[in-house]
């Protein structure tokens, strides 16, 4: 517990930056806001974030603004989804700038004179989110935790074994606090999206129901297609130049797949792309290392064990990967098949 | 999965017994009912059960009828809370009789001409409750499960290590399906009550909020104070005579405690009571064996490690035990201190 003290944001009202959007720091405060929205029969869209906002988050906000009367964003850096050796301490925290970016986002509703902006920001403390406390060491944890067994051990879970447990736990809490009609997540975290849909289905949740957990296509840098991510901020100028390699490798694998090549060859071609870049990077002392590139079924999330399975009526296949650039770990993915069939 | 097939109650409407109380078998059906109740601004009390109703359940129903506009009972034998070697297959299933008992229960509301009875019974199938399937073998399970770490390993959890995981998981699902304002549980399962209060607090649940998880005093046989339990049905005539021994032993420990004796002596005196009965029972070939008698703090559920800790402003202490009579395991408990201080 004590080790987390430095990261518990002090959320007394006086410490909050000025904001025209209401900032709510406790569940009790938020419930009053939510109750009023319900009385007024307003739909609520929800965009959960860990802050350090970029245009990827704004894509989620824009979709929520378009599809709901009211939009709530949460900003909470969740200790439970960081392993003790990971970057909880250094994760970018940029609240004043986040609020500026969010405030600037607005949407004119056609056939309506009103302009929609985000209606509330939920900024809970660690204590508010974890009433029984939280320790990053899973073995020392006390209180209520969730796991989505069979879906969080592969892909990202293989490299980060307690990650989805932390995600499932905090998102369940956030869903219960916010009680949204719709929730928006970025495709970049595709396994997270699919696990959360399953969680809502398994838990018989109505806020949101699984069909209202929306997967929004990954936002990319328009110049080189790098997937937008708060962790891109960690990259050196050199690393930033190399970062688009992961998506390039995935696109090569996708092309090979569409050309009818077996999975192993698709992965081999993608791996070659990374290897060539890594060799060059090593000359300037930057370590580039592929964590994985893999094909997984989108329903079971199991590694695709057939050479070819994408058929017209089948569920999509997830082609995903993770790449280390120095000490920064980046992820990306491509959905092969019809996104609308993701469950 | 296949091993559970025989226990999946077929819930097609034609298979249901006749009932004047609406029987709802799917979450979708129930949501319509719930939505209507919300529109009418009616409060909903919830009594989750595994059926095999007795007057203990009816005490919960009576309290719910008194405190809510509408009362919902669920009847669902939850596979996830039985270990593979436990009594899932033989657990008493008495639906037609359960519905008769529930229908007969009514309450005249003072200052109101209406007579309240239960308003709906939720009778989900295993598939409805576990959309990702359920295997009693924890290692083989897939899908979303909850654990309340640090509170489910002692007392009952020591003898039944996966029990509270199953309870936490199914009750979370039921709370999400029913969305009750109030929920009612019997004190006999005191650890379950306290874990569920913590679960609601940890998960920031509003339906119900932790203060609306109500602990109703254990209902007892008026002749010999045996705690009412569906598992009492397993007892032979001989076993039934011996069954009140557990409560007698707990009462002796309570008396010793109130006399100011240290915990160890209180437990020793209670154990003696059981030992004497066990010796007699052995003569008629009935094995009676004490599983445990223990004192636990009510907030942490940790074993009481002081000789004396009950002070005026402190939380209550739980004195609880489990007794085997042949192959039937009975539990009981006494709360030392102010029940209203249980959190």
Automatic annotation (TrEMBL), chains A, B:
<dbReference type="GO" id="GO:0004592">
    <property type="term" value="F:pantoate-beta-alanine ligase activity"/>
</dbReference>
<keyword id="KW-0566">Pantothenate biosynthesis</keyword>
<dbReference type="Pfam" id="PF02569">
    <property type="entry name" value="Pantoate_ligase"/>
</dbReference>
<comment type="pathway">
    <text>Cofactor biosynthesis; (R)-pantothenate biosynthesis; (R)-pantothenate from (R)-pantoate and beta-alanine: step 1/1.</text>
</comment>
<keyword id="KW-0067">ATP-binding</keyword>
<keyword id="KW-0436">Ligase</keyword>
<comment type="similarity">
    <text>Belongs to the pantothenate synthetase family.</text>
</comment>
<keyword id="KW-0547">Nucleotide-binding</keyword>
<dbReference type="GO" id="GO:0015940">
    <property type="term" value="P:pantothenate biosynthetic process"/>
</dbReference>
<dbReference type="InterPro" id="IPR003721">
    <property type="entry name" value="Pantoate_ligase"/>
</dbReference>
<dbReference type="GO" id="GO:0005524">
    <property type="term" value="F:ATP binding"/>
</dbReference>
<protein>
    <recommendedName>
        <fullName>Pantoate--beta-alanine ligase</fullName>
        <ecNumber>6.3.2.1</ecNumber>
    </recommendedName>
</protein>
<dbReference type="InterPro" id="IPR014729">
    <property type="entry name" value="Rossmann-like_a/b/a_fold"/>
</dbReference>
<dbReference type="InterPro" id="IPR042176">
    <property type="entry name" value="Pantoate_ligase_C"/>
</dbReference>
